Amino acid sequence: MINTDIDQPKASLRSRFLLHLIICLLFFVPPCSSQAWDGVVITQADYQGLQAVKQELIDPRGFLRSWNGSGFSACSGGWAGIKCAQGQVIVIQLPWKSLGGRISEKIGQLQALRKLSLHDNNLGGSIPMSLGLIPNLRGVQLFNNRLTGSIPASLDTWGSKSLNLRVLSLDHNSLSGPFPFSLCNLTQLQDFSFSHNRIRGTLPSELSKLTKLRKMDISGNSVSGHIPETLGNISSLIHLDLSQNKLTGEIPISISDLESLNFFNVSYNNLSGPVPTLLSQKFNSSSFVGNSLLCGYSVSTPCPTLPSPSPEKERKPSHRNLSTKDIILIASGALLIVMLILILNTLKLALHCVDPTPSTRPEAQQVMTQLGEIRPEETTATTSEPLIDVPEASASTSQ
């Protein structure tokens, strides 16, 4: 006879175990639908491009482990930092991931890419030139890395389809080289910042073409030359930071016309002259300090008063009236000239009287020449001798 009293507790124990197992599976095993493939397949070019990007990155925290397999889940949220549209990558967003290495040139294969956000990592190397091959690129955020080299001179090819680039943030890297003039052709640009790099050169006046620009930050570089007066034509400008550079000259008064400007800083440059009144009233002294020749931005930095013009400069444009002394001197000079003319005429008449023969008479010019050759000592030593030699022929005739 079977002992049912013993079998019943065993059956209940198995039932409880199965119940606990089902509960654990429900709580700890994720539902299959969360990783289900939605039918969108990443294109082969984008898949290869992402794999090439991954190969050149150093991922100490393993954020890119999901970038594996055949790529079926790349556009379904399975790959970290990737967003797609119609099987093409439109966003790479991996900030604060401690990523090292460099950005691969193969990133140019992602032809639908609109946003590249890799800021606050440890990326080195240069900015890929292939970014200029991406026609719909709208935002590049690579600040707070260790990027080197120069900013590509062909910036105007970035987002070349209707020049779509709107945001370019390259702050706090080790970029060098001249200021990229091609930036002025990115007419849709709203925000660009190269602060705390090693950019040199001058600011082009063509920056005024960026009519939609809201923020411009080039602080902490080695940019020199004058501040373009044309910056005052960018009415949309809200934030302008030119501090810690090598800019010279005066602050253009046109900057005062920027009504939307709520941040302005030109401190620690080599600027000179008076600060435009409206700017000194709108912004505090911290926006202007560090320019030894700049004045008028605070009570402690008054501009020197203009010196009064010297008397000589005042007399130059005016006509001075003649004094009595001047009139006497002029009259005396005129009288001396008249007397000299009379003396010359008298000498000429005397010559006619001395020599009756016209052919042998000395000319007045000869007389004056002889008078000029007489020395003072000769006149005192031979006062009894005639000043004019009489020719022998005329002397014998008189006898």
TrEMBL record:
Domain of life: Eukaryota
GO CC aspect terms: membrane
InterPro entries: DNA_repair-toleration, Leu-rich_rpt, LRR_dom_sf, LRR_N_plant-typ
Domain Leucine-rich repeat-containing N-terminal plant-type residues, every copy: 45-84
Keywords associated with the record: Glycoprotein, Leucine-rich repeat, Membrane, Receptor, Repeat, Signal, Transmembrane, Transmembrane helix
Signal peptide residues on this chain, from the entry's feature table: 1-34
Database matches in PANTHER family: DNA DAMAGE-REPAIR/TOLERATION PROTEIN DRT100, L DOMAIN-LIKE PROTEIN
UniProt lineage: Eukaryota, Viridiplantae, Streptophyta, Embryophyta, Tracheophyta
Keyword Zinc-finger: no
Keyword Transmembrane helix listed: yes
Bilayer topology annotation: Single-pass membrane protein
Annotated region (Disordered), positions in chain: 375-399
Residue ranges crossing the lipid bilayer per the database entry: 327-351
Protein name as it appears in the record: (thale cress) hypothetical protein
Main location: membrane
Family classification: Belongs to the RLP family.
Compartment annotation: Membrane
